[in-house]
Specification:
It comes from Gillisia limnaea (strain DSM 15749 / LMG 21470 / R-8282). With 114 residues, this protein is mainly α. Helix content is 54%, strand content 0%. It has a domain of 66 residues. The longest helix has 30 residues.
Length: 114
């Protein structure tokens, strides 16, 4: 496997995990922590820590996704791969015999054609 393929697999896994973590969160502050009966003044079983964990994991996964995308871009542009497309290189150059456009004589505004 090439390095790009490894980065691509990691990007897909991190993107999937990021979607899962975001879907677990509730935009109104409930989310996973509300299912444990939290939300009031009492914090039983570390519900506050669950919200902090989801928040930190979202930022961590988003940062990791950005870094993996940037690194995969570097592996695409490394010196081992050709910079030109194989499709472009394999096709012969097409020569077109287009005649040059006919230019009309330029007439000065002060001259008369008569």
């Amino acid at each position: 496997m090439s390095t790009f393929t490894i980065f691509l697999a990691l990007i897909i896994i991190v993107a999937f995990l990021l979607v899962v973590v975001i879907m677990v969160q509730n935009p109104k502050g409930g989310g996973l922590s509300s299912s444990f009966g939290g939300g009031g003044g009492q914090q039983l079983g570390g519900v506050k820590k669950t919200t902090d964990f989801l928040d930190k994991s979202t930022w961590t996964l988003a940062t990791l996704l950005l870094v993996l995308i940037l690194l995969s871009n570097v592996t695409i542009m490394d010196g081992n791969s050709p910079s030109e497309s194989r499709v472009i290189d394999s096709q012969p150059a097409l020569e077109t015999n287009v005649p040059a456009p006919v230019q009309s004589p330029v007439q000065n505004p002060g001259e008369d054609n008569n």
